[in-house]
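TICKET: design request
STATUS: open
ATTACHED STRUCTURE:
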């Protein structure tokens, strides 16, 4: 079997959540599996990101198609180190290298879910009014933020839940594995949310221009944006 065909079959197995494949990837750091996971993250998250930014035109769609996978890879860098330290502190025996493999595989599963949700996001975007400055569009902007936050959080939590069994299996004890899993999940959600805020915009706020990054990326935080979005949605 040539490498391309083998990668295709592995990608299909990952979509099925094949337990043997996941266990093999976690146990052995294979170059081919790492590359495949990176490619799946780029394709799945890129496709979903394009549908998110499309509301503000093709240019914004292309920007978000690049930025959403970028968020994943930045989170992988920071959380891979953090998760490894948490794994050792909480007594799981899972170090930095294995925690990075867990995280990369989890992000690949998340990308598969987001790729599957891309058509939903696409038709959702098509049925939203174009961005503008009136109060109705401000409310729609808030709704977009909340909807995509929920969809991405759903994909992330679902993907992580697929790994709980393996974390318990590879940890020194099932109890330590459970503790470290929920510590990882909390850290990944927190870091991912804040990195997404720093790399905004993903859909342009009414009255602002399309651009790759804001001039003030560290001004405010993601959680303030969610509160403002909830307030804007109440204007419907």
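STATUS: resolved
RESOLUTION: sequence designed for all positions
ATTACHED SEQUENCE:
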């Amino acid at each position: 079997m040539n490498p391309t065909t083998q990668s295709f079959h592995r990608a299909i197995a990952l979509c099925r959540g094949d337990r043997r494949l996941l266990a093999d990837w976690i146990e052995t750091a294979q170059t081919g599996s790492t590359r495949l996971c990176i490619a799946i993250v780029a394709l799945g998250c890129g496709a979903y990101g394009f549908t998110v930014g499309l509301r503000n035109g093709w240019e914004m769609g292309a920007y978000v198609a690049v930025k959403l996978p970028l968020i994943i890879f930045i989170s992988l860098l920071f959380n891979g180190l953090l998760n490894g330290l948490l794994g050792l502190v909480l007594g799981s025996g899972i170090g930095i290298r294995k925690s990075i493999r867990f995280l990369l595989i989890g992000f690949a599963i998340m990308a598969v879910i987001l790729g599957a949700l891309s058509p939903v996001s696409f038709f959702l975007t098509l049925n939203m009014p174009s961005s503008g400055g009136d109060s109705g569009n401000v409310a729609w902007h808030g709704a977009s933020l909340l909807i995509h936050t929920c969809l991405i959080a759903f994909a992330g939590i679902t993907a992580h839940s697929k790994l709980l069994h393996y974390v318990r299996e590879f940890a020194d004890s099932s109890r330590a594995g459970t503790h470290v899993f929920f510590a990882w999940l909390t850290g990944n959600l927190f870091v991912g949310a804040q990195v997404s805020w720093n790399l905004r915009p993903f859909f342009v706020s009414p009255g602002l221009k399309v651009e790759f990054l804001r001039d003030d990326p560290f001004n405010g935080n993601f959680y303030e944006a969610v509160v403002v979005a909830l307030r804007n949605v109440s204007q419907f």
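CLOSING REMARK: The mean pLDDT is 84. The radius of gyration is 19 Å.
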